[in-house]
Amino acid sequence: MAKELKDLTKRAENYSQWYNDLVVKADLAEQSPVRGCMVIKPYGFAIWEKMRDQLDKMFKATGVQNAYFPLLIPKSFLSREAEHVKGFAKECAVVTHYRLKTSEDGNGVVVDPAAKLEEELIIRPTSETIIWNTYKGWIHSWRDLPIMCNQWCNVMRWEMRTRPFLRTSEFLWQEGHTAHATREEAEAEAQKMLKVYAEFAEKWMGVPVLQGVKSETERFAGALDTYTIEAMMQDGKALQSGTSHFLGQNFAKSFDVTFLNKENKPEYVWATSWGVSTRLMGALIMTHSDDNGLVLPPRLAPIQVVIVPIYKGEDQHAALTEKLTPVIEKLRESGVTVKYDDSDNKRPGFKFADYELKGVPVRLVMGGRDLDNNTIEVMRRDTLEKESVSFEGIVERVQALLEDIQQNIFEKARTYRDEHVYECEDYEEFKQRVKDGGFFLCHWDGTEETEAKIKEDTQATIRCVPFAYEQTPGIDMVSGKPAKCRVIIARSY
Amino acid sequence: MAKELKDLTKRAENYSQWYNDLVVKADLAEQSPVRGCMVIKPYGFAIWEKMRDQLDKMFKATGVQNAYFPLLIPKSFLSREAEHVKGFAKECAVVTHYRLKTSEDGNGVVVDPAAKLEEELIIRPTSETIIWNTYKGWIHSWRDLPIMCNQWCNVMRWEMRTRPFLRTSEFLWQEGHTAHATREEAEAEAQKMLKVYAEFAEKWMGVPVLQGVKSETERFAGALDTYTIEAMMQDGKALQSGTSHFLGQNFAKSFDVTFLNKENKPEYVWATSWGVSTRLMGALIMTHSDDNGLVLPPRLAPIQVVIVPIYKGEDQHAALTEKLTPVIEKLRESGVTVKYDDSDNKRPGFKFADYELKGVPVRLVMGGRDLDNNTIEVMRRDTLEKESVSFEGIVERVQALLEDIQQNIFEKARTYRDEHVYECEDYEEFKQRVKDGGFFLCHWDGTEETEAKIKEDTQATIRCVPFAYEQTPGIDMVSGKPAKCRVIIARSY
């Protein structure tokens, strides 16, 4: 373990390796024997749980209810929406049999050919098809609308190149699916959920995001509009962190879902879907962490404060514990998660490095001299600043510090992001600079050809038409044609 | 909808049909187009969420941490533990391919034969194998123990005959998997989790359970001991509601998981696993509900109190709302979930029947005359008793009533259960009576032969060796041989 702490690759050396190392060393996740599928370890899962619980509250506050739809989708469902099947058919895990039998040599099991399914089933890559097939039975009149369901579940997209949290064959996510009587209401819902995601990312994860709308090429398969939040990682690459789709009447038409409007006339239902996944863990890690390990926002840290007494002998141990107990209790009463680590089987230096690696936001250390002087040492993980302060008022100081760290890491990330958004009008310059990361605010003629050329030349893609920047007239730097809009272009995860 | 309310089958007519009807009519769940898989609707899922959140708290209070392991398990893993594969091979959903492609006629998608997996993957029916394969990497020394992980997830067991919640091909559950240094510690853990389940069932679900240990035949595939909680439904049948397994060193041996003990010698790790599933929803429904619909324990009811004002015209509506608002606020402040239903698009009679069907524990109704008299009508769902009471002190009355209902439905179910536990020493009598339901406390010679004969003759099975009843000496009623123990025998779900 002590060795592991030292072995973390430096970001400047190899950012990608640093990320992979950190995920493992901070006990967040590890590869499983199943290709592209990971094990989320307890410490990583505790962070995900906090994210999930907060998002869940925010969804419910907008009137969304949770439900659960089947894992398996009949193959034929996928084909009903033409764009949808194009988008997902190439990465589907397919269930073809429902039984194993003992192999002839008796030493193992083989698929039982007699137990072949009549129609193959797909492990859901996303659930629009099965949900709209279900909504058909739920929706008859305008009185049945809106329907706003969400499910927290696992999905499977067979990816060829995987990275923990960022791109895995199986991942955990939530998918919201709403049904509305009017186009306006559905569009407003898709935009509302984008705002929920943005608020969560910024206020809880401390991750600044650009909100915007995707180009047609980058849309969700089957959507009329895909809204996105795009975060910038420390290497300047974009990470699409959440998407919300206005699906129009596409799925209603594919699954024949109509309602009688107030004039008693049948109309197709309007739809949205929206999702965030364990990918957010990747955004969280890559936005804040450093060469010593994780840096976690206090609001999502499984342990917010660790208190380490440094003692010689049981008397001092007891004296420190007695002194610190009221602090622990008061912090806990105020809702702060505190770990009191007075274990004697690890050296303090080891503990310090381990809690830094794990991103615990605040560390308090107290030793014999502190007892005499009525002082305590406070370390904040985000800046690694250490300070010896009076023991009096330590509870309030820690509470304020947690707030300050939450704010500080967001501001720091936002400053970094803002410093790496470049306006660029020259394609040669763009090609040169985009390799080093950053978001490029460029005029675009709105054609797929230009989009494809940029991708081919630079691997960078149009991330979105951002809402935060003014739409000025201009010339497309690639085609030289008049621009349709300004977009953010970047290399991405 | 109004029609649906009336169409609920009576329990006395057809208990099984009543259950199926109720699940659908109370908006708990419905069949999906995928064989044996259900859609859990928002109202049903809200109950499951409450169950899950409470259980999760109770698990964490014992030191258990949540994690997440892959959905898919390599086929070869299953074969490693001989009993385990025997138990699960016959009901495995098998993934054989990872891609679809456009069919030749261009109108659909087919499995791409070029995308065949080298080794088939099984959708987890339970996760001992993949988890113990993972634990191998986590456990080296006694210092790494115990490990206590739980996951909330979906599992798949391809069932031929399915019923909503009770037996479905896909279901939601939690599976705890713990690893220990000693046999004693693992046995104690398995028993501790059984106690957690029993406490949850009785205090939260209001479902009395018999705790006991399974016969060898009825054990979990791969366990040395399976502990169980058995509940009695209103038709006298048993419902196995949760199980906790002492797995010995079986999985540690199959996956070669050893640790260095304090003497630095390698030993195999001791294991437990334990789980409850959406099956608990079936137990909840069948224990308390009646011919008018669901009866829910207040602690798990998504809506605990519904308040229906009865008004003519907007003035009276406003006056009632003004009068009731402080009650709603005070109840909500004290943690009670209140629905204020002043919608004017449904008649009061319809609302009453609907909330009865949905099992809302307490209904308050207030009309114009109540306003004049400063009274309010209180209805409790468990007994359907209605009472007009003074408006003063209504908040405290409702709070007390919720507690009383929670207690009352448990006592009622316990009395029913206790009245239907029969001591029986005569096999002819047993065969006659067991058809009508009930738990039969009988002496058993401990042989598989006797167990098999009882099952063949009566469809009843040995549910458990119950802890609550004294183990008296006696004679096996089937074989006439001296008994090894006393067991509970019953027909079951």
From TrEMBL, chains A, B:
Location within or outside the cell: Cytoplasm
Keyword line: Aminoacyl-tRNA synthetase, ATP-binding, Cytoplasm, Ligase, Nucleotide-binding, Protein biosynthesis
Top enzyme class: ligase
GO biological process terms on file: prolyl-tRNA aminoacylation
Recorded catalytic activity of this chain's protein: tRNA(Pro) + L-proline + ATP = L-prolyl-tRNA(Pro) + AMP + diphosphate
Highest taxon above the source species: Bacteria
Gene Ontology cellular component terms for the protein in this record: aminoacyl-tRNA synthetase multienzyme complex; cytoplasm
Pfam hit, one: HGTP_anticodon
InterPro entries: aa-tRNA-synt_IIb (IPR002314), aa-tRNA-synth_II (IPR006195), aa-tRNA-synth_II/BPL/LPL (IPR045864), Anticodon-bd (IPR004154), Anticodon-bd_dom_sf (IPR036621), Pro-tRNA-ligase_IIa_arc-type (IPR004499), Pro-tRNA_ligase_II_C (IPR016061), Pro-tRNA_synth_II (IPR017449)
Residues in Aminoacyl-transfer RNA synthetases class-II family profile domain copies: 4-297
EC number: 6.1.1.15
Gene3D superfamilies associated with the record: Anticodon-binding domain, Bira Bifunctional Protein, Domain 2, C-terminal domain of ProRS
MF (Gene Ontology): ATP binding; proline-tRNA ligase activity
PROSITE patterns named in the record: AA_TRNA_LIGASE_II
CDD domains assigned: ProRS_anticodon_zinc, ProRS_core_arch_euk
Main location class: cytoplasm
Quaternary structure note: Homodimer.
Comment block on domains: Consists of three domains: the N-terminal catalytic domain, the anticodon-binding domain and the C-terminal extension.
Role played: Catalyzes the attachment of proline to tRNA(Pro) in a two-step reaction: proline is first activated by ATP to form Pro-AMP and then transferred to the acceptor end of tRNA(Pro).
Family statement: Belongs to the class-II aminoacyl-tRNA synthetase family. ProS type 3 subfamily.
Name listed for the protein in its UniProt record: Proline--tRNA ligase
